[in-house]
Specification:
The protein is α+β, with helices and mostly antiparallel strands and about 170 residues long. The chain has helices spanning about 20-35, 80-85, 100-105, 165-170; strands at about 10-15, 45-50, 55-60, 60-65, 75, 90-95, 110, 115, 125-130, 135-140, 155-160. The chain has two domains: about 10-85, Roll (Nuclear Transport Factor 2, Chain: A), CATH 3.10.450; about 90-165, Roll (Archaeosine Trna-guanine Transglycosylase, Chain: A, domain 4), CATH 2.30.130. The protein is built from four helices and eleven strands.
Length: about 170
Amino acid sequence: MRRAIDTTDMDVKSRHHLRSDAISEIQDGIEEQLGVTVAADSFEKVELTGGDWNVVLVDGEPLVLYVEGDGEDEPFLTVRGANEFPPTKRIVTVDTGAIQFVSDGADVMRPGIVEAGDEIEAGDLVVINEEAHGKFLAIGRAKTDGSDMVGDEGRVVESIHHVGDDLYELTV
């Protein structure tokens, strides 16, 4: 599994507008996973060199990322995308003490979690938000079910992308 995304040596390899069926696939996938509709005028897929990450620009902003899954890459909101289109499902909420660690790309540990959606299953992509302001800080992959995330010890979400990483700072 990949850790935080590094786009330091990445340039745009290709960029093209998506067809309506590809847009529907993205919108349906994100709505099913996160309970939110991504509505926009334009969707462009951008492939970056230096890695196999595929980003979708939504109205010119990198709001969707294809994340490696079991069989094929699956569309999911980036941190900026989650803050633009706040999810209603697959949310893991951390306390203020965990904000700095999560924002630096650390995996999410049980002691920092105050709440996790019961619908989360091990292996699901999730969004991490902070309890004080409800801002999204990271996306990651659940290592356990949501009902098992609050506790005293152990890593429960593997970080994939976080506030301040190169993908978050990406301008295309």
